[in-house]
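Give me structure tokens for this 256-residue protein.
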Amino acid sequence: MSIEHAPILERARAQFAEIIAHQRLQQIGVSVHVIPLTPEEAIGAPWRRDFPIIIGKERVIEARVLGAKGQAFTDSPQVFEGTVTDVLDLDLTVSQNRAVFVAALNAVLNHLGMVKGAVHCKDDEPERCAVEIADTIARRFGQSTVGLIGLNPAIAERLVERFGVAGVRITDLDPDNVGSRRFGVEIWDGNHRTEDLIAVSDVVLLTGTTLVNGTFDHILELIATREKRYVVYGMTAAGVCRLTGIDRICPCGRES
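Here you go.
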């Protein structure tokens, strides 16, 4: 398989390896320290308490490389200590390893000044982020039907405010969300109805967490088949989007 048709993380890994070699980082054995963060460390104290990280459905892991930070959402957090070369050698068919790889990639590219927004926003910033995302989608794509893959309650609420209940579709993988209604919109099962969401949407807004949970490539294939426009949101996707040219939005993401 040519690298152009390889899975997205393999494409990112190939480019990451070239950067590491060019910067000679593998020769000095740069340490990668990855730890899971508490909700307060990751997102601060927002007034909204229904974010997945706060209710315990997801965790943020943080990689530190040469003083720079990079983060990733995952439902399978683990501690990791190794070199950049160790990260490049990880088996990316394993969810925990994908999370470590993505966080470490974000940290290295953050250190090199190649990405912005590799660290999660905090406190009141997630709400401001949601408003800016909804405004940006409206400005770029006009009055559209927006498909949100991955329930972020703040973003979902602002999309409904901007595009109306009839103009928003949402899928999620959490069984506690599936079948419920949020802001008037029924949450569809992401395991079975993602294709339905893409079919009825003018533009798809998908969480970068799909890179870690292993669903991104299938979703991208469905989007390409339907010839739909799409944008990835969040800090998790910072490095992968930078290396692969994928459109990402993360208005309030931090560098540290």
